[in-house]
TrEMBL record:
Entry protein name: 3-dehydroquinate dehydratase
Record family assignment: Belongs to the type-II 3-dehydroquinase family.
Keyword flag Lyase: yes
Pathway: Metabolic intermediate biosynthesis; chorismate biosynthesis; chorismate from D-erythrose 4-phosphate and phosphoenolpyruvate: step 3/7
Source species: Rhodanobacter aciditrophus
HAMAP family reported in the protein's UniProt record: AroQ
CDD domains: DHQase_II (cd00466)
EC number of this enzyme: 4.2.1.10
UniProt site positions, description: Transition state stabilizer: R18
An example molecular function term from Gene Ontology annotations: 3-dehydroquinate dehydratase activity
Entry annotation: catalytic residues: Y23 (proton acceptor), H105 (proton donor)
Length: 149
């Protein structure tokens, strides 16, 4: 049984209160419970993380790369939030640590403001899920398991 790391970027700690018309009413705790239940169906554990700090997320990617090589982690489901559109450093960390990442976005970023249409994460992601609400996390876990198991 391998662990799947679920990472969440800036402002995702505000789920349920921040723009509920865009992001829904589920909280980050609800997302964590969904991820744990979904992973359990596939015989995996979840390591659930959230940070508003880019460096903490980069350190988590580096750690994931090491744990993947040790056979302890399968991969990462990652909602980078606004860092999607700005962070070359996260892109480089994913590539450098050779981490299989499923990029997840709750909203359809391509139907929103034009600055949200570009992702620095997508070119190095194993797969991308957008616009399915928090169910995108469950789809991301399923996709990661199906692709890598």
């Amino acid at each position: 049984m391998a662990t799947i790391i679920v990472m969440n970027g800036p402002n995702l700690n505000l789920l349920g209160q921040r723009e509920p018309d865009q992001y829904g009413h589920e909280t980050l705790a609800d997302v964590e419970a969904l991820c744990i239940e979904t992973a359990k169906q596939y015989g995996h554990d979840i390591d659930f993380r959230q940070s508003n700090h880019e460096g903490v997320l980069i350190d988590s990617i580096h750690e994931a790369g090491r744990l993947i090589k040790e056979g302890k982690v399968l991969g990462v489901v990652f909602n980078p939030g606004a860092y999607t559109h700005t962070s070359i450093a996260l892109h480089d960390a994913i590539k450098g640590a050779e981490v299989p990442v499923i990029e997840v976005h709750i909203s359809n970023v391509h139907a929103r403001e034009s600055f949200r249409h570009h992702s620095y994460i997508s070119p190095c992601a194993t797969g991308i899920i957008v616009g399915f609400g928090v169910q995108g996390y469950a789809l991301g876990i399923q996709g990661l398991v199906n692709k890598l198991s």
